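Schema walk-through. Below, the input block comes first and the output block second. Nothing else is stored per chain. Lengths vary across the set, and this one has 154 residues.
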Amino acid sequence: MAINNVVNIDDQLSRTKEVRLAGKDYEVKISDNTDRALTKLTGVDLPKMIEEVEKKMDLLDEDNNAPDYNEYFKFVESNINEVRDKVFETLDEVLGEDGAGKEVYDYYNQSTKTLLNVVDLLQGALNNVMEDRTEAARQKYQNRNQRRKKTAKK
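--- output ---
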């Protein structure tokens, strides 16, 4: 009886994750570049943008006169557009397709809030991939060892 001395690590590791988003399937690479793009957006770009918005709001508040509606609307709109465009760039990079971020935005009724939720869900799903694979491999080898023990007892 031949003993298989090869442990196939490749079967236990994912290099990509199939993601269905906005009615379309994407193959997202599990890589440092993907992690970096998502982390840069959520950990650096968005917090920096929020800080800048708060500073601008403080400047508007310092003025004793309340900003007129048009000024306030332009301020809010420009900041939402800036966030949206940054998410577009990130989704294009993560999904591996130019224009993917805009497609997702259009599919979800042009909602920047939904885009931010998509980024959060993507980041969570990709973080869980390796945990899921590790658990599956643990179960596989645990089951195999249990079968061997039962066979050896007979």
